[in-house]
């Protein structure tokens, strides 16, 4: 029963390769080449994962990356407008990514490696700015850390001990 549900979830998932990088290790006989694949997996409904796979062949590296991404999935709160609930800044290594909510119709305004993460998370309107490094691995991991820090209005209201409607009393649009 649980296995069928897991298979159903796996079929809903989309995967996107962010980048494939060739790396080498110097050994006694020369250089050993291998490939690193950074992969994003998501269902477009708020569940997204990020994974990395290494192998000597591209398909194998991608497959390992997908497996790793499925293991590292997390939930992202997405508003009804398809945006993030509040502004957040994610950090990972030297990478910093600023993520801001946007009004409907804005679209995904994000740099190269971060775009698939937002799209597969189901975020359709967002503004983001990469600060610091231009290393794709650190940027996308910083964006993922930022998305993990997001809290939904329900969680915030529960933490404060009030209702969601009480949170927005006195605020004007």
TrEMBL record:
Q: Which NCBIfam families match?
A: rpsE_bact
Q: Which residues does the UniProt record annotate as the domain S5 DRBM?
A: 13-76
- Coiled coil is among the record's keywords: no
Q: Which GO terms describe its molecular function?
A: rRNA binding; structural constituent of ribosome
Domain remark text? The N-terminal domain interacts with the head of the 30S subunit; the C-terminal domain interacts with the body and contacts protein S4. The interaction surface between S4 and S5 is involved in control of translational fidelity.
How does it associate, per the subunit comment?
A: Part of the 30S ribosomal subunit. Contacts proteins S4 and S8.
Q: What does this protein do?
A: Located at the back of the 30S subunit body where it stabilizes the conformation of the head with respect to the body. With S4 and S12 plays an important role in translational accuracy.
**Family to which this protein belongs:** Belongs to the universal ribosomal protein uS5 family.
Organism, scientific name:
Tractidigestivibacter scatoligenes (Olsenella scatoligenes)
Keywords annotated in UniProt:
Ribonucleoprotein, Ribosomal protein, RNA-binding, rRNA-binding
Q: Which GO terms describe its cellular component?
A: cytoplasm; small ribosomal subunit
Short name of any one Pfam family annotated for the protein: Ribosomal_S5
**What's any GO biological process attached to this entry?**
translation
Stated name of the protein: Small ribosomal subunit protein uS5
Which InterPro entries does this chain map to?
Ribosomal_Su5_D2-typ_SF (IPR020568), Ribosomal_uS5 (IPR000851), Ribosomal_uS5_bac-type (IPR005712), Ribosomal_uS5_C (IPR005324), Ribosomal_uS5_N (IPR013810), Ribsml_uS5_D2-typ_fold_subgr (IPR014721)
Q: Which domain of life is it from?
A: Bacteria
Instruction: Read off the SUPFAM superfamilies from this record.
Output: dsRNA-binding domain-like, Ribosomal protein S5 domain 2-like
């Amino acid at each position: 029963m649980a296995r069928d549900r897991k298979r159903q979830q796996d079929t809903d998932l989309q995967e996107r390769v962010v980048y494939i990088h060739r790396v080498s290790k110097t050994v006694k006989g020369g250089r050993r080449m291998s490939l690193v694949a950074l992969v994003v997996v998501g269902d477009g409904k708020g569940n997204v994962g990020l994974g990395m796979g290494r192998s000597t062949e591209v398909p194998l590296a991608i497959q390992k990356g997908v497996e790793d991404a499925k293991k590292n999935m997390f939930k992202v709160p997405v508003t009804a407008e398809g945006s993030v609930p509040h502004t957040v800044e994610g950090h990972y290594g030297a990478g910093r990514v600023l993520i801001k909510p946007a009004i409907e119709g804005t679209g995904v305004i994000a740099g190269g490696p971060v775009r698939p993460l937002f799209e597969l998370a189901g975020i359709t309107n967002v503004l983001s700015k990469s600060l610091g490094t231009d290393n794709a691995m650190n940027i996308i991991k910083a964006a993922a850390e930022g998305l993990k820090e997001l809290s939904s209005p329900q969680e915030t209201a529960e933490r404060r001990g009030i209702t969601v409607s009480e949170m927005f009393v006195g605020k004007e649009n």
